[in-house]
Write a structure and sequence with these properties.
mainly alpha; 4 helices
Amino acid sequence: MVKILLVAFDGLQPLQIPSETMPNVTKLADRGVRFGHNHAVFPTVTRANSATVVTGVYPGKHGLTANKSVMRGYKDRYVVDALYPELGQINDSVDTGLLFVLTLG
């Protein structure tokens, strides 16, 4: 089985990774693939972009369009922050899961 490690540094630009101050990150990138022409999806928020990378579809199809969301079937009027520590619990408790499509995982 082939193992793949996908690392994304949200908002970190290549010029912010000088080998002098970030030698380990530079070595990791040099041994792998640099995604130099990445373009964010709209809306340009962390969760929507991350979900797009792991699903290969736009937010309108995978269903995660913001860093804060209302998860129907979990708590209809509760706004879940992206850093909510129980996202796994939410994923298991709603019929559709957090995303509407399969992921790389």
